[in-house]
Amino acid sequence: MLRNLAIGLPVMLVCLLLQAVFVAVCLRYYARFKHARHGGMSLGQEILLLSVVMVLTLIGNFVQMAIWAILFMLLGEFADLATALYHSGVNFATLGYGDIVMSPAWRLLGPLEAANGILMFGVSSSVMTAAVLEVIKHNLARLGEDVEP
Fold it and tell me: Which InterPro entries does the entry link to (predicted)?
């Protein structure tokens, strides 16, 4: 169990840092885009902005799944990347299919990845929610309505 934690927790930390990078990139992109469009955004620009935020956060989650899959391969749990990615995706998204299980020696890494994944999907959702709320505020302001902070 301690060996699983000693290997899994640093991978979780790498994933947390990676997600922080993707969130920072999303926020910078949003801030630059909004600053450049201070006169207002068209519907197409709003859709583009939200799409870029969603795609960047999704890419961040996919990269983290790949990191876990590579770890599983390095530990000898899977012979091919496709199976390792599938298993990692099932863990990360907390699906828990159970059709592929790891050996008892490394089985605790699955729940660690699931904890990592649910946290990262929560962070991704909050970033997307913040972007959607900004678009709503922008549209309400254009309509001349008071917007609460």
Answer: K_chnl_dom
